[in-house]
Fold each of these.
Amino acid sequence: MAFQILLNFILAFVWMFLKTSYSPASFFVGYLLGLLIIYMFRRFFHTRFYLLRVVAVLNLLYIFLRELLLSNIAVLKVILRPKLNIRPAIFALPTELKEDWEITVLANLITLTPGTLVIDVSPDNKILYVHAMDVSDIDEAIQGIKNTFEKAIMEVSR
Amino acid sequence: MKTNDVILQTVTKVTLFIIILFSIHLFFAGHYYPGGGFIGGLMTSGAIVLLLLAFDIKTVKSILPIDYIKLTAIGLLFAIGTGAGALLFDMPFLTHAYTYVNMPLLGKTSLHTAVLFDTGVYLVVIGVTMTIIQTIGESE
């Protein structure tokens, strides 16, 4: 991945030198041409074509912003309700993520979306303990987190 | 004895892209400077030949699954298409038109139908060269 980005930058600079025009526009044109060539030879590399990973990162960002908006509205509804009939719970969330940064990102995503909060991570990095404000079905909550955040993070690191 | 080609292969991995970028530069330079479809196509196929030298025919086929005979046909269609396109506007065969367009990135650019004709030349040159080299290379 890093090699592909580095190669793309080198190609953009080579293009600028060939054109002897050192403007941002010619850098961009060279970058696009380099991207096209790297795409043509994408089977040449051991890793995936790096633009796919960039798309996965953007997708993760979109999912985060969407969840942030939706669950803020959910919390607002709970606050404005006259009676407080919520059911708080702490549950264990088994995770398949391995790398340190993946677990950190997952925990931060869970915490930043209101309604859920990561309390602790088990010593072997396999289980996250999550406090939820209002859970009617624990399995549903686990599946919800797994299907959105964990899947999107795996898509980035794959 | 099978020798280890790791240096050749690693150098190929970087130089290949620079050669192809240079061939694209030559291709687009054709209108105002030395260059054009023929030399650009030859240099692109030169890059693929470098790939063939560093790896074997099977690997190159899996990296670039291109049918070069079809590529030649597509190039010829490009050339005939741009020539025949002039007939639609009541002009003689192979009359070319051009216009100046302000592109978002490239600035003031002249779009010329001769570039499409050159694309045809480019594809035919790659197709023919690679067909010749691969046919000779595959026969025992």
Amino acid sequence: MKILVAVKRVVDYAVKIRVKPDKTGVDTQNVKMSMNPFCEIALEEALRIKEAGFAKEVVAVSIGPPQCVDTLRTGLAMGADRAIHVEANSSFLPLTIAKILKSLADVENPGLIFLGKQAIDDDCNQTGQMVAALLGWPQATFASKVVLDKDKQFATVDREVDGGLETLSVGLPAVITTDLRLNQPRYATLPNIMKAKSKPIKKMTLEDLKVDIKSDIEIVEVTEPPKRKSGVIVSSVDELIDKLKNEAHVV
Amino acid sequence: MMRAILTKKKLVLSNAHRFISITNLSRCISTLILAEHESGSIKPQTVSTVVAANHLGESSSVSLLLAGSGSSLQEAASQAASCHPSVSEVLVADSDRFEYPLAEPWAKLVDFVRQQRDYSHILASSSSFGKNILPRVAALLDVSPVTDVVKILGSNEFIRPIYAGNALCRVRYTGAGPCVLTIRTTSFPVTPITESKKATISQIDLSKFKEDAVSRSRYVGQSTQDTERPDLGSARVVITGGRALKSVENFKMIEKLAEKLGGAVGATRAAVDAGYVPNDLQVGQTGKIVAPELYMAFGVSGAIQHLAGIKDSKVIVAVNKDADAPIFQVADYGLVGDLFEVIPELLEKLPEKK
């Protein structure tokens, strides 16, 4: 079985972002970029499945500008066997990304597609569900535990839902999106980083994949959220209770 | 004509009422809401979603779709019919196939219902239920969904947070198909309803509903955290603990304080990962988003990802030993001190809840 893992290059999670003064978006020039944390978890899980002998190959995919190659190299250094870079200079809506991934799945025939549950830049939480719909495959979103059945026909997945945990069994091929607690992603070691340099990254274009690009959502403007007014530091519990009672009227 | 309307819209954006009425001229709004229900009653998130649907336009009609099986479904349907005066119709899909909310049959169902009655908008709350199913519905319809909407400016213009709530993105849906949205329910509070009205309930004929040859998803089970405290997402008071609580035992102090104030307990990712509390109590970008009247954080440093989930709280109180903790930048009242001293003192001195 082959596992396809979609990884996205995003502004590093620790960076405090700045909204551009012309309100067209968020400034991503000269800002540290990394692999989306949920994608790292997705890749780690695919690698663990391969190491347990359930999969033969892990293929990392990224869609975007030339710099996505760095993200893919990180993935290869973690242990992915090869990578596919779909070059695109504009950013796409999740629906288009899902269509690109569907075309890739049609070519690659993976038994599983792993994605993060959401990208920490657009916070959409859509792509995995949409790929599953386009392929007509079952989906298991927000996974915190994945157990593959011996005969490889089923994955039993614990999902993080609002009231607690839910367990599903999905027939393969399937799409799984990962939540934070699924695993602890490994660090790439220096020898593996060196080795990753010789692993293949296949370049593809949108023309190769014949995907129709849909842009039915227009970004009107991006603004900063309203600032909270600055608070006060109180010196004692008594003062705190007094403020809550007589100033904020919440207790 | 359309272009003229669009230009005109830009001019009146500051005037919400006129904006809505102009949009109405160009489009009739009919909304289908995928409802969430549990043991015979409709969930509060769904009622918030109905409130949100009312912002789409003045003369909108709202249909609630309930799927499930058996008597508890019918009970929930009858409650749904009177949950909000703007609900005009309750549609019920009763089948064993919908016993559990599996995305595959449910997304197919929404598409099935849409084919029979044309809807301009399809909504659900952005709970784990809505987030799981609606993007799948949107892909079946070949439209881009807008998730986690916090403000509705008109029938096709919305605001949603991006980058963990550090930026707000105003988007316009320009597609031809139905507009698919998930709603951040804390942004659309439900006001008490005085007017009582009962919507019509109709059963959906499922004889032509086809699933894929074999449904390859199966529900295995669920482990729910039974709690008597109010629901985290809609509580008036939320008390949160971080890693500094150090143990499951110590976390009980947070629970006691929550009980005293009639509030819900929340936690940071660090506290969840350390095993002090179950993961469904996590508050933040990837956990629950809360907007209570009072939010109290104990031993919480205030990482970007956590702040994303609490920013809309009315009053934020932070107690932390570290005076430089980022949480103090968003707190209305901060107290620099040891939570192991502060919490017992609060427990002793706070008035009993009303």
